[in-house]
Design goal:
By secondary structure, the protein is mostly beta strands. Helix content is 0%, strand content 53%. The strands form two sheets. Strands 2, 4, 5, 6, 9, 10 and 11 form a seven-stranded mixed β-sheet that branches. It has a four-stranded antiparallel β-sheet with strand order 1-3-8-7, with no helix packed on it. The radius of gyration is 13 Å and the shape is globular.
Length: 118
């Protein structure tokens, strides 16, 4: 499976933005996908994950209520809808995949930059 993230950009505080992660290759081997982000000088943080088959979701407390993860199985794409963006949301956003339920996210996309100005 290969992952291609897109949709990042420069927005103002309070704006919304939707990121996309297109999966190609043998997606039937993918159990779940997730979004992470990494701000300058900080570690990569988990944001949200979704089970490919059931659509079940899980969120980090830091984004619960503001970010929504979803998937379109027909398009092999996972989305991250972000609302009420804050300057501290500025980071490179990555999508990742795991082949097994509860397994490590071992397949990564290239990242897309999100910059939120105040």
């Amino acid at each position: 499976v290969q992952l291609q993230a897109s949709g990042g950009g420069l927005v103002q505080a309070g704006d919304s933005l939707r990121l996309s992660c297109a999966a190609s290759g043998p997606t039937r081997t993918t159990s779940g996908l997730a979004w992470f982000r990494q701000a300058p000088g900080k570690e990569r943080d988990f944001l949200a994950s979704i089970r490919w088959s059931t659509g079940g979701t899980n969120y980090a407390d830091s984004v619960k209520g503001r970010f929504t993860i979803s998937r379109d199985r027909a398009k092999n794409t996972v989305y991250l809808q972000m609302s009420t963006l804050k300057p501290e949301d500025t980071a490179v956003y990555y999508c990742a995949a795991t082949p097994s339920v509860g397994g490590a996210f071992s397949i990564w996309g290239q990242g897309t930059q999100v910059t939120v100005s105040s």
